[in-house]
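Q: What changes when pyridoxal-5'-phosphate is included in the input?
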Amino acid sequence: MPHSTGGLGPEQEFSDQDSASRAGAHRELLMTPEQMLALAQRAAELLIERTEGLSEEKAWDGDFQQALQNQLAGDPPENGRPAAEVLEQAAKAVLPFAARLDHARFFGFIPSSPTWPGVLADFMAAGYNVNACTWLVASGPSALELVVIDWLRRWLGYPDGAGGLFTSGGSAASLDAFVAAREAAGHPERATVYMSDQSHSAHVRAARIIGIRPEGIRMIPSDDRFRLDMEALAQVVREDRDAGFSPITVCANAGTASTGAIDPLEAMADFCAAEKIWLHVDAAYGGFAAVTEEGRKLLHGIERADSIGLDAHKWFFQPYEAGCLLVRDSRTLENAFRVGHDILQDTVWGKNHPNIADRGSQLSRSFRALKVWMSVQTFGMAAFRRAVSKGMDLAARAEAYVLESEMLELLTPVSLSIVCLRVKPGRIDLGEETLDEVNRTVLARIFWEDQGFLSSTLLKGRFSLRLCIINHNTNWDDVRDTLESIERYGTEACASLADGE
Ligand SMILES: Cc1ncc(COP(=O)(O)O)c(C=O)c1O
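A: The predicted holo structure follows.
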């Protein structure tokens, strides 16, 4: 049948063949149930093979642009090819060229080791095509997000009335928190934000995004244990007020990325309460320590913050992305973010039926709460508590090892699960510059030759090797072997220096 073209032009514009292919077009992006199942099964097999094979692999893989482009570049095909072939290509030519952040010997940056129910939750959420934006569009997912957010509220010791939402990560959580803080402060001109010189760069970025001018972003010095210096904070705030600036938020660390340092949360909460400044706590790395008794003690005071950002894709064993933002009073988020739109007028369900999109910057949102819920339901909180504690226990053991080693120096006491150390042979005085060189050589040799992966940081300018131990699958052998490699490469680097090489 020729298609009636209405205003489009003469009927003969479309041939019978065009019309037949258009009629079939609605099926062109579909697969049969058998094809879908076979493909999903193969995808699951590939993932399980990868996970089972991790212990045989190095913790890092990657390649240069040219080599990867040679494999991957090309125009999109006009006609498709077998899906299984595409899947195999992704599994062999793309996905392996990345840091294996869930490898038991990956200690760089902040590792991530997702549990299988969490991975499948992302698959299910995508398959069910959830848009966790409003109650009307996603009542089940919204109800579950409220449940999981309420778990987090209780773990952190927040009162009833606190609430929040899942975000892409800690950076987005901080950004949303800054927006809420600015709203609560009444959008002052000449706004200032405060953070320690150890705060994550995400906070400077968040401040820039909300329009804080460079001179309004105040970096407060940290003490010899990398915790924000309260006196310095009080002095800078005082001077700023005298100069006509308006502080809108102070940002505290509940586990810095460099050393795991925890700022004086109680003192900062007292200060912010007295000064009427919003206190945001960045707990992206350290926040989930709160599920353990030890962590809860270390993070004491966090429950007094106006907002807390934390990442379940770090120390709570979820796949990316799984950030969260909690606020003491969930209305503060809605005041900052809720903006009506005619097209959304049908989505207002009223009290106790929040549209979670009104609490943050995304309207269309993936259903991130499902992964936390499915994995906690599957394994139970006792297992999660043990897994989080394991990171702290292994870090404490690594600290003891370093303190006993003749070759290694502990650069700051372990906090949470981060160990900062360097090679420093006890008997020879090499000088700071040479020590830096030796340690950079050690880092490079671990990278190229060892199975494990480390990264480094700067501790007030001093080069430090750094292990972040939060993988539930890491054992003492993994940590000890890596420390032994550092000692061995360190010994060899010192020997070649002595030989004048
Ligand atoms: C302490 C800290 N804050 C914030 C962030 C940023 O979080 P995300 O990468 O989830 O945006 C990180 C990331 O590692 C972090 O370690």
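Observations recorded in class: DSSP finds 17 helices and eleven strands in the chain.
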